[in-house]
Amino acid sequence: MAICFQTPFKPIGFFNDNSKNHKPLLRCNLSLTTTELEPVYTSVKSFAPATVANLGPGFDFLGCAVDGVGDYVSLCVDPSVHSGEISISDITGNHASRKLSKNPLFNCAGIAAIATMKMLKIRSVGLSLTLEKGLPLGSGLGSSAASAAAAAVAVNELFGGKLDSRELVLAGLESEAKVSGYHADNIAPAIMGGFVLIRSYDPLELMRLRFPTEKDLIFVLVSPNFEAPTKKMRAALPTEVGMSHHVWNCSQAGALVASILEGDLLGLGKALSADKIVEPKRAPLIPGMEAVKKAAMEAGAFGCTISGAGPTAVALIDNEERGKHIGERMVEAFWREGNLKAAAMVKRLDRVGARLVASVPLR
Amino acid sequence: MAICFQTPFKPIGFFNDNSKNHKPLLRCNLSLTTTELEPVYTSVKSFAPATVANLGPGFDFLGCAVDGVGDYVSLCVDPSVHSGEISISDITGNHASRKLSKNPLFNCAGIAAIATMKMLKIRSVGLSLTLEKGLPLGSGLGSSAASAAAAAVAVNELFGGKLDSRELVLAGLESEAKVSGYHADNIAPAIMGGFVLIRSYDPLELMRLRFPTEKDLIFVLVSPNFEAPTKKMRAALPTEVGMSHHVWNCSQAGALVASILEGDLLGLGKALSADKIVEPKRAPLIPGMEAVKKAAMEAGAFGCTISGAGPTAVALIDNEERGKHIGERMVEAFWREGNLKAAAMVKRLDRVGARLVASVPLR
To answer: What does the pLDDT read at residue B97?
Structure first.
């Protein structure tokens, strides 16, 4: 494990964002050029939330962030690491995270961190990164995006937060492209929080869709013990869509966007459930999914669909207690109809996105 | 021509809507049953605006109303007409309107008026209708919907305005179904005003998308002297859509809806111009259309596409003077590249929809 050249990492407290007010106590220019950025912290810790992509008719262009569950990245300046490079010193968290490579070129956090360093033109400092996986892999909750987002934000904040969210999404996209395809519907909300619409890729244009702050939005996320690889789930999709289904899904996508902006939870749930193109092809590949959706709706959910490429099912409600009840019914349905063990989480919309949660200033 | 049994039609003034405050001076129950509605006016005159359907990626589910241009219907109680029936006494207006049938079963206004009478269960009163066409036929400006909307609203108001806008859209849809297909993207905004998203048909669900009142939205409508029959324009469309184009258009539809609700004219124009499915197939069938779009954009329009099934081109801007300039460039392009004469109109968004513009109370 790489050792930080100053104090070992110590979380010093939680704050939302924007470290520009924290004046570094010491700055030493490690660069040979005058333009290269210097670190403003010895070490930082960042968090990036889970994300729900697709949201039914929002397939491949809409996603949102889920509060209170995600990945952490700790990052420190490390003189034992080659200048301009990243070393992954440790990966902790859930059982499956042991599968992840510590080679930064093959790790989501590593790829995004390198991309961010390149954007910032960091050539004179080496960094050491620790990834703490809070999200299961391949669950349809944007696990790879959360790692990438946390890493991109950590690198950016360590050097003073010069990149804006669009640039951070571009850095994260380099990671997503290698892992699951060039899709920003997880990485964009993981970085920006809330709902994000991907308007175009060339150039990358993102629209933040503000869900009214005075309204509550609760996700019930039920993840079965089942593997649904993104590649397989994508292969299940048709290459062509009938015109009537196209028009239907387009109109539901419009209704979804309007419901988000107007804070109309009933309308949002209805649109979420209304996909006629992707969900009907993917649901049969996840044992019990159709029954799980039915159980969620019968238990009072406003809407239910597959989260990302699955296998997690996501239902929508306005109340935490009712969310727990709905989650129980969904877990039962996965067991009864799919013979799958499943775990439920009840979470709020994350409106912040990836952020610094702790930092150690330079001394 | 049928003659009204009381005073001949006299417009008595203009007001926006809702005649319920105008107490009728005389009511005589013409019905044998106690439940049948009675007319509350001797005669009414209604207006319904032109509409722009599709709006690029909003194909077949989104439309909006255009102020200051549309059709008028004058309607009066007429004892010379069979009870429960409608007679079309006259059709005036532009040259082509002579083509329209005066048989109410084959006339948009007639069909919608009959449907509205049926909904209101009017069996004991005969009505005489005059249609004043302000819109050219087959122009892509919702000519048939304007006639139907004006007729439905006239009948409804004559009997006290009992039907809500959704029911009026259903009445208008009976007409649209016979003329151009069961599509509500003209009739719904013609009746409701503003932007309307058609969420579903079974049951009919409509979403009003409120464009912020403090912002101005100007349409430049350029109609060439060219016939683009809806059937032919529909036949040009593919029956299947590639998945990548589907996702693209869906995301643009979402962006279109978000831009409307946020009053983001630049975003709205961009989305309007971004259709990859319908416009590319239809534009080549309208001589000069591609050049017209180019001319509009070069002259500063925020966006441009085909209005409805064409041949009218619609461009978007925030200022009337600039709208006139854009219109001139578009007219020139139709002439230069399409060898077509064209006429330009510069109009605002209509936020009211079909309404009573005059009425003669019962005496």
So the answer is: 72
Residues of B in contact with A200 (CB under 8 A): 251
Contact A315/A301 with Cβ under 8 angstroms?
yes
Query: Which positions of A are catalytic?
Result: 176, 230
Measured in angstroms, the CA of B57 and the nearest CA of chain A are apart by: 8
Distances in Å between the alpha carbon of B347 and those of A25, B192, B319, B361? 61, 17, 10, 32
A61, two tokens? 């262009």
Three-state secondary structure of A213-245: CCCCCEEEEEEECCCCCHHHHHHCCCCEEEHHH
Please give the Cα distance from B137 to A120 (Å, whole number): 60
Contacts of A234 in chain B (CB under 8 A): none
Between chain A and chain B, the number of residue pairs with CB atoms below 8 A apart is 107
Q: What ipTM was predicted for this assembly?
A: 0.89
Q: A14 burial class (0-12, 13-18, 19+ CB within 10 angstroms)? A: exposed
- B61 to chain A, any CB pair closer than 8 A? The answer is yes
Before B224, cis peptide (omega within 30)? Answer: no
169-188 in B: which are within 8 Å (CB) of A?
none
Per-residue pLDDT tens for B101-117? 999 999 999 999 999 99
Alpha-carbon radius of gyration of chain A: 21
- Whether B197 and chain A come into contact, CB under 8 Å, resolves to yes
A202 and B CB contact within 8 Å = no
Asked if A224 and A332 touch (Cβ cutoff 8 Å), the reply is no
- Annotate A220-239 with b (16+ C-beta within 10 A) or e (fewer): bbbbbebebebeebbebeee
Q: What is the pLDDT of residues B197-231, one digit of tens each?
A: 999 999 999 999 999 999 999 999 999 999 888 78
The pLDDT tens digits for A281-336 are: 999 999 999 999 999 999 999 999 999 999 999 999 999 999 999 999 999 999 99
Residues making up chain B, counted from first to last: 363
Q: Which of A251, A259, A272, A276 is best to mutate for the B interface (most B CBs within 10 A)?
A: A251
Q: Transcribe A253-292 into DSSP letters.
A: HHHHHHHHHHT-HHHHHHHHT--SSSHHHHGGGSTTHHHH
From the list B143, B87, B145, B76, the residue with the least C-alpha distance to B114 is B87
Q: Is the Cβ pair A199, B239 closer than 8 Å?
A: no
Strand ranges for A78-211 from DSSP E = 86-93, 127-133, 195-201, 204-209
Which helix (H) or strand (E) segment holds residue A65: the answer is: strand A62-77
